[in-house]
TrEMBL record:
BP GO terms, sorted: sperm axoneme assembly
Organism: Nothocercus nigrocapillus
Cellular component, GO, one term: cilium
Superkingdom per UniProt: Eukaryota
Protein name listed in UniProt: CFA47 protein
Length: 113
């Protein structure tokens, strides 16, 4: 083990372009030693929020397809939690890597408001 005075810090700046798995190798060489460090970062987005405005005649449904793109290398299982009255959509959506799936959000008002 190295004493603290012998340790060298290696700052790394990581700026992900989105969620997914990022891998890299760091090769350190000297005249007496070669070391390879493998670094893997998994980036998840905790919450994504969006706002949509619906205008529709009473008793008529409006459907807005919302594109969900999976740019990662892993399958996504997304759970939808709809808040508010008169909104409907699938509770679960599966999106494969490299795929874009439309989430059909329906608004069906039962009265004028």
């Amino acid at each position: 083990f190295l004493e603290k005075s012998q340790a060298v810090e290696l700052p790394i700046k990581f700026i992900p372009k989105g969620s997914g798995r990022y891998c890299c190798q760091i090769l350190l060489k000297s005249s007496r030693d070669v070391r390879v460090y493998v670094v893997e970062c998994i980036v998840n987005t905790d919450h994504a929020e969006a706002e949509l405005e619906f205008l529709s005649p009473a008793y008529q449904a409006v459907i807005q397809d919302i594109p969900i793109s999976n740019m990662s290398r892993q399958d996504w299982k997304l759970e939808a939690v709809l808040e508010g009255q008169n909104f409907y959509g699938p509770p679960v959506l599966y999106v494969h890597p490299g795929e874009t799936v439309q989430y059909p959000l329906m608004f069906k008002p039962i009265a004028e408001s």
